[in-house]
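sry for the spam today, last one i promise. struct tokens for design, 658 residues
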């Protein structure tokens, strides 16, 4: 059946050949690849009641993080009890359950018993502290602990997915196989800060949920629309414009969104049809959007809120973290941008006509939309207030900016929407962090960390590159389908300590950046490349080919972490001065151009296989910091560029003569 088509206008430019059912397609894609979109349908009074509960939860989290000084055991258990309560209200037992205002009896039991277990702990926190290790002799405490762990695991299956749950289950089985008593394990995981209530959940309570709420308000202030129009004004007119718009817009949007899948579907519903219309293959169009959206999570200064988390885990100032992230992020997006440019040149593409692009003077008038981000970055970077307090002030700034935005004014209803969506988005992150705590608890109680380190060192036979590769595989597996903030919490608690062991010689900052990068790229790395598959669904392309293409486009994310693990100068660590920094930046960018051209197979003209290999090696040499490697790489790239230029000139002269 022939597709219905109609003319659209969006973000200052026109595009046609887009399906009328795009909105419905986007919703279907979100439900398929983003578990957070598979929610119960509530209507009427139940919907209003749940909305008010969500709003109340968001307000409670802000007040708790900024003002309350409750006993940690009470504070954390009450928080998790509310998350379990909201989680079972929100997520059905399986996908496709769309009966309105329906909650089966078993879900009601799970909701009551699961949240009740955590609330029981909160009500009896003082008694639990008094009993300490003797708590295993109290049956009611043990039953509550078991129920709480089971409820958390089931909610994780519903809203996060199976990969992280399988890992935690394997570790639990291993824990029991080491001879540890079940009751001791329950006590460790439920009644100490070495399990569910370990560092990942603690940072959620302290400030992560507030950052998520801030993101919800930021979205409703109209900044996402501003980012897309800014990207169009900046690069839309150049060759292959729509793809370059996708790269820039997704970098800016993904920076604050914290979800590569949601970002891929949100902006991809606009950019992917545009790229296809311009002549890009469906797999390439979907891969560009997926790779750029995923890369948004590593984009400073926000990094999907992971920058603030990294400051908490490493003890480094936030401003230092943001600066160290600059060059790797630039290399990542430069690599994608170059690949897009070379593909456009190879296909002979044009840009978007200037008269269809937003005007710079109009964008300048809306620059005030960035005020909440600037406020947040300034307050956190200057250490003026705590992170939670800074995020609260930024939320107030977002509310004011939203109220001033005439195009997308923040009405009272949208204000409530932001609080509601902030609460709903928090569920997945907190649940994943809770399971991360279970994983960390099992590793701690069994002494598996030292055993795992010993195994990795033994397997690597003293070669750090092998240890890094094995850690990379662990990160990609653990990062499958997990939101950015929870993803980094898991990596920081499980994988980073391995690399920080003195026997491997990787610096603390390099270790944390290494595991963060590979946890994030799990979303575009087959076989479980959710962002790539979501983009493929919109582009109607082959999912596996899209995933492989996205991996190729994001090649910098697979190379750069190894480079800064060996040479932390790329993170501006132990650099001798400004001259060395400039050298590292210029050589790395030139090297990345060589790598991107080699993978694309096109420079000035099509590149033969042997020359592609030489170009790739030359690019790698320039990416690795060091004068000798820079010179060697520059010579290889320059010779191939000269050869390509001469061949192109010869062909042109031959054509003229003929």
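last one done:
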């Amino acid at each position: 059946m022939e597709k219905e088509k109609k003319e659209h206008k969006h973000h200052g430019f026109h595009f046609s050949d887009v399906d009328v059912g795009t909105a419905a397609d986007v919703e279907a894609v979100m439900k398929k690849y983003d578990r957070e979109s598979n929610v119960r349908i509530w209507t009427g009074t139940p919907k209003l009641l749940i909305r008010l509960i969500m709003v109340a939860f968001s307000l409670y989290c802000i007040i708790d993080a900024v003002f309350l000084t409750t006993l940690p055991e009470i504070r954390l258990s009450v928080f998790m009890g509310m998350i379990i309560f909201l989680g079972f209200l929100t997520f059905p037992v399986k996908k496709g359950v769309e009966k309105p205002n329906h909650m089966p009896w078993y879900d009601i039991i799970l909701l009551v018993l699961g949240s009740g277990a955590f609330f029981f702990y909160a009500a009896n926190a003082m008694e639990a502290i008094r009993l300490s290790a003797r708590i295993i002799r109290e049956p009611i405490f043990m039953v509550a602990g078991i129920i709480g762990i089971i409820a958390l695991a089931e909610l994780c299956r519903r809203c996060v997915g199976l990969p992280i749950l399988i890992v935690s289950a394997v570790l639990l089985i291993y824990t029991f196989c080491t001879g540890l008593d079940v009751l001791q394990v329950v006590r460790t995981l439920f009644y100490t800060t070495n399990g569910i209530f370990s560092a990942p959940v603690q940072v959620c309570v302290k400030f992560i949920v507030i950052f998520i709420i801030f993101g919800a308000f930021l979205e409703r202030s109209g900044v996402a629309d501003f980012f897309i129009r800014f990207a169009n004004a900046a690069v839309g007119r150049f060759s292959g414009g729509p793809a370059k718009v996708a790269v820039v817009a997704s970098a800016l949007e993904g920076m604050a969104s914290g979800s590569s899948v949601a970002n891929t579907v949100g902006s991809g519903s606009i950019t992917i049809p545009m790229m296809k219309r311009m002549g890009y293959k469906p797999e390439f169009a979907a891969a560009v959007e997926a790779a750029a959206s995923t890369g948004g999570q590593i984009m400073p200064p926000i990094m999907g809120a992971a920058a603030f988390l990294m400051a908490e885990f490493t003890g480094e100032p936030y401003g230092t973290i943001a600066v160290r992230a600059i060059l790797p992020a630039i290399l990542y997006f430069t690599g994608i941008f170059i690949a897009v440019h070379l593909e456009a040149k190879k296909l002979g593409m044009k840009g978007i006509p200037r008269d269809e692009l937003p005007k710079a003077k109009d964008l300048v008038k809306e620059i005030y939309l960035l005020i909440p981000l600037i406020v947040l970055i300034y307050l956190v970077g200057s250490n003026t207030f705590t992170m939670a307090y800074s995020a609260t002030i930024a939320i107030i700034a977002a509310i004011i900016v939203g109220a001033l935005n005439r195009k997308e004014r923040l009405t009272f209803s949208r204000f409530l929407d932001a609080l509601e969506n902030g609460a709903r988005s928090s569920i997945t992150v907190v649940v994943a962090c809770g399971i991360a705590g279970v994983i960390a608890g099992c590793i701690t109680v069994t002494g598996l960390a030292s055993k795992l380190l010993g195994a990795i060192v033994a397997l690597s036979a003293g070669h750090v590159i092998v240890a890094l590769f094995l850690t990379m595989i662990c990160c990609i597996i653990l990062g499958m389908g997990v939101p950015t903030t929870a993803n980094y919490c898991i990596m920081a608690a499980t994988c980073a300590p391995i690399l920080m062991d003195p026997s491997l010689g990787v610096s603390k900052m390099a270790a944390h950046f290494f595991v963060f990068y590979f946890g994030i790229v799990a979303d575009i790395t087959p076989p479980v490349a959710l962002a790539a598959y979501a983009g493929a669904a919109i582009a109607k392309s082959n999912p596996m080919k899209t995933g492989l293409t996205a991996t190729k486009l994001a090649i910098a994310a697979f190379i750069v972490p190894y480079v800064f693990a060996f040479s932390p100068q790329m993170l501006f660590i132990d650099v001798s001065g400004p001259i060395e920094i400039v050298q590292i930046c210029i050589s790395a960018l030139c090297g990345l151009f060589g790598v991107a051209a080699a993978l694309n197979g096109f420079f000035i003209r099509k590149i033969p296989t042997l020359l592609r290999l030489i170009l790739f090696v030359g690019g790698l040499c320039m990416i690795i910091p060091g004068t000798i490697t820079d010179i060697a790489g520059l010579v290889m790239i320059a010779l191939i560029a000269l050869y390509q230029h001469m061949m192109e000139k010869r062909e042109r002269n031959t054509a003229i003569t003929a």
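Residues 268 and 406 are 25 Å apart (CA to CA). ok im logging off now
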